[in-house]
Amino acid sequence: MWQFPHWLPRLFARRTFYLVFAVVITFSVQIVGVYLVFASLVIPALAVMGKAQEQPALLPAFGLGVLGYAAGIAVSAWLDLPTGASIVWFLALAGLGYRLAKK
Questions:
Q1: How far apart are CA 28 and CA 53, in angstroms?
Q2: Full-prediction pTM beyond 0.70?
Q3: How many C-beta atoms surround the C-beta of residue 36 within 10 A?
């Protein structure tokens, strides 16, 4: 009798994730640009890499992303600066601040 392989749902979940990820990234790049999408993916991950041993790294990375976006949008609106560049700068500053605070 045929049995359902235990690894099959995990395989479909992974493939579905990568398919959705590819579609979202493609549309995001078309909407906001490669610079902002790349910075949003890379800067928070690099900032918490190797620094969050006592807790999962996803939560601090998410917090850095939210902080960088909120500060970048606020400063952009306040000083009439380009929003994408402001977000990238504040993501970088938040990541640098996190790295320096964790030393």
A1: 31
A2: yes
A3: 20
